[in-house]
């Protein structure tokens, strides 16, 4: 009994030690942002005439939501086909798609920029959404295919006998039972798109189209180290992070299940 | 017409159900396929289901890859439409002994080893503790996992101020504790800047390893632990003899994902050091970005991209094989 208590104590010591490290940056940022002039730093960031805070949050929200909706739709459709249908070239296409899963966006920097520019889509939402969909879809395809592999074929056969078309089976039978998977892939895509930095960095010059990631570097560009400027930098970074934390608090469960589903299958 | 086709299909289903030796999985797959396998419509349907994904994702990415490979043999400046074929000159420059490419590759590898080992080690320790379900463990788990929801570029920005030699909180804390000799220019000293970047990455991604190990721990059957307890196995013995060996599959996955992640690292580096001081924290991706976007050397940038792509595709294939094996 005595031994049991001491192990618990050691465990708490370890947990609190790492908790202190993990809270340090966030607590520092909050205290430092308020140290000089209190909430004035926050007010001046929100009142910035070039980069409007709420506009920036809206841009990121719109882009991440649109990307998530498109990715969930196209990857669930394709996952269904790859898992439950049989067609010529099936495996070749599947492997060819997943072969790109580890391709970093940075490795195709030049063609990405050049192609979007050629289509006249720089400084547009669509110009950002297309590459975000392209690069997020592959991991979600893997998740959907694995998920559909776990759904018994009998469910589909029964619907087929009842006279359902393939499209109706997808829409009326599979999608309603897949809500956890829709949430998981949707949240994962949303978070990855929200956090993307290189795509807006390459494609956006117009301040009205800035995302939170781009705006955060905008506020870091003043290299001045007066206490007021440091406080304002911290305030800007906290303001840019608040929406992420709200999303995290709402969707923590789905984010965790998405990350584990992508990694462990044993 | 549809009703007729369905009738045929239903009849077929029954006939197939009666048929013996055919492989079950492939049979039900074929049945799920549609009313009549002979109609061209049914044959076309799977392609319609994958078309949006293949066009938006596959075609887009493969086009970009093809573009990169093609321009890597030219002297393209990255902006104009003009380019001349120069053969393997970009690659010769890239792979010459002592070139920036080798420095960047070395930095990528150091970064990968340091972050993968520490993230996996810390993640395992915390997952093992959290599995005990002590009061408050959900709170700890939520905090350790939270950085994953935050943008790496913003976390890196916070650390850039915290690690600043003059106004940074780390040096302030060290001075407060009278440990001035430990105060460093964390991101400005070429000897330690790379490790500071590793630290930021560990802060961002440790929760990822933790949550994956946690899920792995949950899948180890409880009776193994009970048997160990009966045999008088202590905490450490259980950890090294049972827990870690049972998690070897999870560890392999984490190593693979860590390698992929290090190959994708860009945001943290460009935000904190931009590859400097000198080339001391140059990564493959920052080198590629600077060559293409800032130095108008699109051809060389593309050649670096090809090297990264080769590594990435090999890694993806390993990832798919591992996933298939685990799924079986």
From TrEMBL, chain A:
UniProt GO cellular component terms: plasma membrane
One Pfam family this sequence matches: BPD_transp_1
GO biological process, one term: transmembrane transport
ABC transmembrane type-1 domain sequence ranges: 57-251
Membrane topology recorded in Swiss-Prot or TrEMBL: Multi-pass membrane protein
Keywords: Cell membrane, Membrane, Transmembrane, Transmembrane helix, Transport
Regions that span the bilayer: 53-80, 92-113, 125-148, 169-194, 234-251
Localization (cell): Cell membrane
Record CDD domains: TM_PBP2
Main location, first listed in the record: membrane
SUPFAM superfamilies per record: MetI-like
Family recorded in the similarity comment: Belongs to the binding-protein-dependent transport system permease family.
PANTHER family recorded: ABC TRANSPORTER PERMEASE PROTEIN MG189-RELATED, ABC TRANSPORTER PERMEASE PROTEIN MG189-RELATED-RELATED
Protein name, as recorded: ABC transporter permease subunit
Protein source organism: Bifidobacterium platyrrhinorum
TrEMBL record, chain B:
Domain of life, source organism: Bacteria
Coiled coil: none
Membrane-spanning intervals of the chain: 47-70, 109-130, 142-162, 192-215, 300-322
GO biological process: transmembrane transport
Domain ABC transmembrane type-1: 105-319
Topology with respect to the bilayer: Multi-pass membrane protein
Residue numbers spanned by region Disordered: 1-30
Compartments where located: Cell membrane
Predominant location category: membrane
Gene3D superfamilies recorded: MetI-like (1.10.3720.10)
CDD domains: TM_PBP2
A single GO cellular-component term on record: plasma membrane
Pfam families, A to Z: BPD_transp_1
Keywords from the named record: Cell membrane, Membrane, Transmembrane, Transmembrane helix, Transport
Family note: Belongs to the binding-protein-dependent transport system permease family.
PANTHER family, alphabetized: ABC TRANSPORTER PERMEASE PROTEIN, INNER MEMBRANE ABC TRANSPORTER PERMEASE PROTEIN YCJO
Name of the featured protein: ABC transporter permease subunit
Source organism (scientific name): Bifidobacterium platyrrhinorum
